């Protein structure tokens, strides 16, 4: 029986607390908003600007379009300021220390995106209520999808880094009326989801005043994930370069050289089209990859011209003389080989120079030196004699005797 009484007591007490809180919230709304003017900026004597703390929470990077020059992000902005008209004592209202109020019933700053890519709009103020604390502090956290402009530098594409930013302006208040203040040095990323194409390197913040308006700027440093482009664009191009060089291994009389070189040339043209479709049409600056593809394309054209000239020379009539220009080109291209052959022949002549041969008197065993006029050169026998490590004067004498 006592247990039942205890359960009934706890239930009634909790209901009493809930009723008191609900009554406190209802009375607070009625009391605080009875003579409240939502269009009037909260300020004491309005001699100093209203300071609003700004923080940006980035949740995801939805898109980064180099062709259109835009960046699409999702997140929410946290704004904190003080409204002295919305204060109360919690003990007088059932211990209620904070309440939620619709944003259109109280004064909220008109925050506008400073660098939009689509249209100039305010933050989604009608969908997000504000939290009012007992000391007059108001916390407002509207979220939205932000379409901003971004200047891209594609010189190192696809290994490029991009620097974009989001700028928030308290439109149409001047800096001496409303001052946006960023307390943190970086963007908050507790709920950020990584993008498959771009990697977030770091973030930064900055406060500035421009055209007498306070601006809060949030910068993002992005790095492209280049693995996809390396595997699908750069590596195939490198392999095509090797294939282009293999055209000279095909027999000239097979007739397949010209078709092979044309196929490789068209492959380079296809890759140039793919790359140009994925980067901005700009010349300030242009990507290094475009220059690289053009050089490879030009080299493939030269290879095809060379193959065509070779085939033309192969099937030309023997009676026709070779053009003088082509003759000079061939001589110049083979000049280094001709010089090497002449150097080798000169070295052979030096090694085959005359050798002083020591003879032996027919009736004696002592050797005599032949006169200068009777020096003889025995290249083959001398080469055999030098190959023997134990060759002495007797061996050389026997060689001379055999001669």
TrEMBL record:
List the InterPro entries hit by this protein, alphabetically.
Neur_chan_lig-bd, Neur_chan_lig-bd_sf, Neur_channel, Neuro-gated_channel_TM_sf, Neuro_actylchol_rec, Neurotrans-gated_channel_TM
Spell out the Gene3D superfamilies in the cross-references: Neurotransmitter-gated ion-channel ligand-binding domain, Neurotransmitter-gated ion-channel transmembrane domain
Spell out the subcellular localization from the entry. Answer: Membrane
Protein topology in the membrane: Multi-pass membrane protein
For whether the record's keyword set contains Ribosomal protein, the answer is no
Query: Which keywords does the record carry?
Result: Membrane, Signal, Transmembrane, Transmembrane helix
> What name does the UniProt record give this protein?
ACHA3-like protein
């Amino acid at each position: 029986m006592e247990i039942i009484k205890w359960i009934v007591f706890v239930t009634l007490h909790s209901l009493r607390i809930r009723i008191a809180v609900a009554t406190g919230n209802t009375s607070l709304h009625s009391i605080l908003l009875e003579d409240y003017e939502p269009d009037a900026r909260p300020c004491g004597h309005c001699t100093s600007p209203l300071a609003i703390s700004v923080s940006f929470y980035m949740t995801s990077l939805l898109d980064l379009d180099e062709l259109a020059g835009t960046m699409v992000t999702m997140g929410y902005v946290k704004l904190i300021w003080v409204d002295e008209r919305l204060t109360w004592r919690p003990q007088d209202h059932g211990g209620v220390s904070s309440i939620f109020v619709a944003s259109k019933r109280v004064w909220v700053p008109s925050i506008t995106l400073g660098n939009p890519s689509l249209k100039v709009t305010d933050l989604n103020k009608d969908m997000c209520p504000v939290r009012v604390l007992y000391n007059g502090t108001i916390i407002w956290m509207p979220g939205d999808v932000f379409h901003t402009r971004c200047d891209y530098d594609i010189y190192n594409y696809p290994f490029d880094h991009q620097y974009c930013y989001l700028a928030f302006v308290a439109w149409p208040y001047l800096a001496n009326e409303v001052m946006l203040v960023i307390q943190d040095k970086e963007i908050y990323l507790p709920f950020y989801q990584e993008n498959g194409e771009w990697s977030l390197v770091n973030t930064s913040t900055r406060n500035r005043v421009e055209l007498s308006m306070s601006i809060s700027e949030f910068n993002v440093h992005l790095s492209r994930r280049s693995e996809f482009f390396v595997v699908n664009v750069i590596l195939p191009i490198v392999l095509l370069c090797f294939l282009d060089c293999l055209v000279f291994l095909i027999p000239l009389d097979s007739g397949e050289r010209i078709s092979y070189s044309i196929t490789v040339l068209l492959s380079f043209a296809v890759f140039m089209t793919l790359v140009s479709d994925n980067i901005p049409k700009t010349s300030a600056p242009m990507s290094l990859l475009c220059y690289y593809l053009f050089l490879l394309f030009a080299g493939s054209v030269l290879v095809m011209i060379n193959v065509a000239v070779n085939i033309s020379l192969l099937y030309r009539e023997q009676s026709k003389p070779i053009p003088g220009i082509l003759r000079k080109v061939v001589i110049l291209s083979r000049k280094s080989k001709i010089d090497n052959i002449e150097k080798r022949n000169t070295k052979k002549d030096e090694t085959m120079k005359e050798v002083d041969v020591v003879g032996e008197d027919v009736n004696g065993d002592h050797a005599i030196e032949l006169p200068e006029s009777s020096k003889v050169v025995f290249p083959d026998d001398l080469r055999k004699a030098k190959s023997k490590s134990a060759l002495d004067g007797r061996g050389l004498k026997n060689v001379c005797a055999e001669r």
